[in-house]
Amino acid sequence: MIKFVYCVRKNPEMSDQEFRDYWLNHHGPLVKSVAETLQAKKYVQSHTIDSPLNGVAQAPRMSKTPYDGITEVWWESHDALAAIVQTPEAQEALGTLVQDEAKFCDLPNCSVFLTEEHLSLIH
Predict the structure, then answer these.
(1) How far apart are CA 23 and CA 105, in angstroms?
(2) pLDDT at position 60, please?
(3) How far is 123 from 96, CA to CA, in rounded Å?
C-alpha cells in the first residue's frame, strides 16, 4: 500500500471549530464523491486535539508547533497511483480538491508526501 499524507494547517482566518467543521462536513464528503474516480482505497482525517500530553511529547523533542491535523489516503501501489493521476478525470478531481483545500487550509504551511507502510505489531 502507498499512502498520501497531508499535514494540515488551518486557514488562519478561521476559528478552530470552523476549520474542523468545514474539513469534516464539507471537504470529507467532497473527497468521498471523487474517491472512485481516484481509485482511493481509504481516506482518514485525524484532527489534532488540545491536550497537555502534546507538550509532554513535544518538550523532549524540541518539536515545532503541531499541525492542525493530518489526512491520509491509501492506494494499492505507487504504480496504481501514478497511472490514475494521468487520467483527465483524476486531474479534474484533484484540481477540485485543491481548490476546496484553499478555502480551509493554509496551503503554503501544509506538508504533503507519499509513504509506504511497514506494519510492526506491538504485543
Answers:
(1) 9
(2) 87
(3) 42
